[in-house]
Design brief:
The protein is built from three helices and eight strands. It is an alpha/beta fold. It has a six-stranded mixed β-sheet with strand order 5-4-6-7-1-8. A two-stranded antiparallel ribbon has the order 2-3. Strand 4, helix 2 and strand 5 form a beta-alpha-beta unit. Helix 1 packs across helix 2. The protein is elongated, with a radius of gyration of 18 Å.
């Protein structure tokens, strides 16, 4: 059986942040921790929900499918207005999926999309589901449980979403292998917690 992806799509908000926008973080940024040249930002309380719905509908349209064609919804989000519930229940309703279609929330941070593809592949191979819609969202600039904008992590924390449909039908990209590595030494540097702003003096004139 060939199992893979029927489509892969992304969605990014319009606001562009350049590396230079984070020059205020220079005093605390390690030399080997430069942010990307460009990130995107969606300053909206409902950023996670907006991104999830738009990228999911884009995936269905790209694959020429209806919500009723989906047997399992798997979502993941970092940031947004809520820690709980996950986006699965929101997106289930927004897409008007059938009541019997499960909605799972997967949380493995950076690897969620890749891990979700591997999970989906195994579920299809096992004959449990036929088509799985996987949606992953990063919404760290909403003012919710996002990243502390006074830390070096802020320069790397953009907003956006990706989606794919894993199945054994109309496969455009076959999944041939799966590999994952975990870098525990980054644990403290990549934290998102509930403490007060770590370096408030750096935020006086930030964009």
């Amino acid at each position: 059986m060939t199992v893979g992806l029927e489509t892969v799509v992304s969605y990014f908000p319009d606001e562009i942040m350049l590396r230079s926008d984070f020059d205020y973080l220079t005093p605390i940024t390690p030399d080997d921790m430069k942010g990307p040249d460009e990130t995107r930002k969606l300053r909206d309380t409902f950023a996670a929900e907006i991104l999830a719905e738009r990228v999911a509908k884009k995936a269905l349209e790209s694959a020429g499918l209806l919500p009723s064609d989906i047997d399992l919804l798997v979502t993941q989000n970092i940031g947004g207005q809520y820690i709980m519930p996950g986006l699965g229940t929101f997106l289930h309703q927004a897409l008007d999926l059938q009541k019997g279609t499960p909605a799972w929330n997967l949380q493995t941070s950076c690897a969620s999309f890749v891990d979700g593809c591997e999970l989906g592949r195994n579920m299809v191979l096992a004959g449990i589901y036929r088509r799985i819609l996987l949606v992953t969202v990063t919404a760290l600039n909403t003012g919710g449980w996002g990243v502390d904008q006074s830390t070096a992590f802020a320069a790397a924390a953009g907003d956006g979403a990706g989606a794919t449909i894993v199945s054994d039908q109309n496969v455009k990209f076959e999944i041939l292998s799966y590999s994952n590595s975990t870098y525990g030494e980054l644990y403290n540097a990549m934290k998102i917690d509930f403490t007060s702003t770590e370096n408030p003096e750096l935020l006086v004139e930030r964009p």
